[in-house]
Each structure stands twice: as structure tokens, then as C-alpha cells.
Amino acid sequence: MDHPDPAAPQARPQGRAEDWTDGHVARWQPVLPELDPVVEGAVTRMKKLSVHLRRVREQSLLDFDLERHEFDTLHKLAGRGGSAAPSELAQDLDLAPASVTGRLDALEKRGLVRRTPSTTDRRRVVVELTESGRTTWLGAMDVLGHEEERLLGVLSPAERTTLNDLLRRVMLLAEADPTVPHWHG
């Protein structure tokens, strides 16, 4: 429902500021009289917010000279305390071990990770974030984190808690549908 006719007339809600979605809903209501404006508004706003945050993340990756797959690898490694076996990263990233090896080669060349022999089993390798890798990962994370804080900062702490609780209820229902494949972050 994201491509309405921009020339269609727009309703003006009274007493509140309008966003793009208000115009979108107003344009589509005459076309689809059964359209629930609250549901359409909420879903459209969630989609637009998701797109906005993705664009901010993409820009932060450009700013930190990271490809998305490089950031994902650093992120998964950081999530394991900055140190992991390549097989653990492959599992976390849902990739074949050979694919992870290629990623690690490139990240190691850039000085963002290092591979060292395991202290418990010389046949194994441990991948560690370098200081440069941690700094790069944190920098990219901070850009998105600041934008998330800026956006949700318009809400009181109680409103943020309520929003989080409401979205959890919606997600629990979405995740309970066995016919839809789900992601794991």
C-alpha cells in the first residue's frame, strides 16, 4: 500500500501535526473504504521508520568504510565478547565455514580482527576483535543508536515502555505463525 496517487486530495486532521502517513491514509480511504486508518497508519509508520533506520545504518557503514557483511561479522564477534571460533561465527551468521573464512581474511587484512591459535587446542583458531575493529564497530553502532535515541526521545520513559510492550505483543503473534519464516537478528 506504499504507492498512493500523490495528486489525490488529502484530509487534514484537526488539532495535531500531520506526517506523510496521514496524507497516505487520507488518499487511500476513498479508494478502499474498508481500510482501517489506524491499522494502515501504524503499519505504514512502522515500515517508514524501519526504512529510515536502515538508511541511517547504511550511511554509518559508508562513514566507517564498512560493507554490510563486514559490520555483521564484527557485530556477531562483539556479541560473543570480542572472541569466537570461526565455527561459532559461521553458526551465528548462518553461513558456510568457507564464507566466514573469506570474510575473516578481508577483516584481518584491514586490521579489524586477528586470528590466533587457541590456548586450549592448537588445532583450533580464535578470532578476536582488534582495538581498531572494536572502535570501528562501536562507531557505526553509535550513529544508529544516537538516531534511535533522538527519535524515541520525543516519548516519555513510560511511553517508550508502553510502545515496546505493544510492539512485543504484535511480534509475539507474528513469530507464532509457523507458515512465515522468521529471522533471528
Describe this structure in words.
With 185 residues, the chain is mainly alpha-helical. Helices cover 59% and strands 6% of the residues. The longest helix has 27 residues, at 37-63. Strand 2 and strand 3 (125-129) form a beta hairpin. It is elongated and about 70 Å long. It has helices at residues 20-28, 37-63, 68-79, 86-93, 97-109, 131-152, 157-175, and strands spanning 83-84, 113-117, 125-129. It contains seven helices and three strands, in the order H-H-H-E-H-H-E-E-H-H. The protein has a three-stranded antiparallel beta sheet.
Q: What's the helix and strand layout?
A:
Elements lengths: L19 H9 L8 H27 L4 H12 L3 E2 L1 H8 L3 H13 L3 E5 L7 E5 L1 H22 L4 H19 L10
Antiparallel strand pairs: 1-3, 2-3
> Which oligomeric form is depicted?
single chain
Largest sheet: 3 strands, antiparallel
Strand content: 5-15%
Radius of gyration in whole Å, from Cα? 22 Å
Runs in which pLDDT lies below 50 for 5 or more consecutive residues are 3-12
How would you state the average pLDDT, rounded? 89
- Find the structural class using helix and strand composition: mainly alpha
Shape: elongated
Residues in helices, as a percent range: 55-70%
